[in-house]
Amino acid sequence: xxxxxxxxERLSGPPVRPPVGEEAQVALTAGYMRRYAENxxxxxxxxxxxxxxxxxxxIDRDTDGALRNQIYIMGKFELADDEALVLDVHLGGAKxxxxxxxNIWGTTNEILxxxxxxxxxxxxxxGDGTYTFVVSTADPGIHNWIDPDGMREGLMTLxxxxxxxxxxxxxxGVQSRIVKLAELPGAVPKDTTxxxxxxxxxxxxx
Length: 206
What we know:
Shape: elongated
Structural class: alpha+beta
Mean pLDDT: 91
Number of strands: 9
Order of helices and strands: HEHEEEEEEEEH
Helix content: 10-25%
Largest sheet: 5 strands, antiparallel
């Protein structure tokens, strides 16, 4: 990763306070990083303390300081090699949705060469406007496959954003269920988009 570089140009008027010295900057940075780590671990523990493969821990602006006009639902998945986690998602009026697999610091898995994260623009909806995603270690042949990169367990932080009027519709939410990979074709909506190996390669290239 490359560090961000930020510069500020004051267009007029004298400074309202003296520059912050290096020692003070170090103290401010250390305090910020501690708060970030503590909040991240607190959120994760609330998700990890719930049953695996269930998504019931919700964060929003009113309850736990999430970004304005956004809702997060977190959960931990844990799968056998012959199992799939199926997520049925209702957008609830959100203009944006993303389903990433992350580590405990919120960093995503491989997203350049694998589908470790999919947003609503990268995914195909069901006929009724909902979305169905599948998490499994083996490629299930479904377009909306969230690839855990060989991991049998991990965190997912589902995120809905940008609601008209700033509030989601009551239907917003996610239902999760575990199915055997062999039974997956009959466990997803009939209009689910399946892909061939060639179609998967094109999806990854795009």
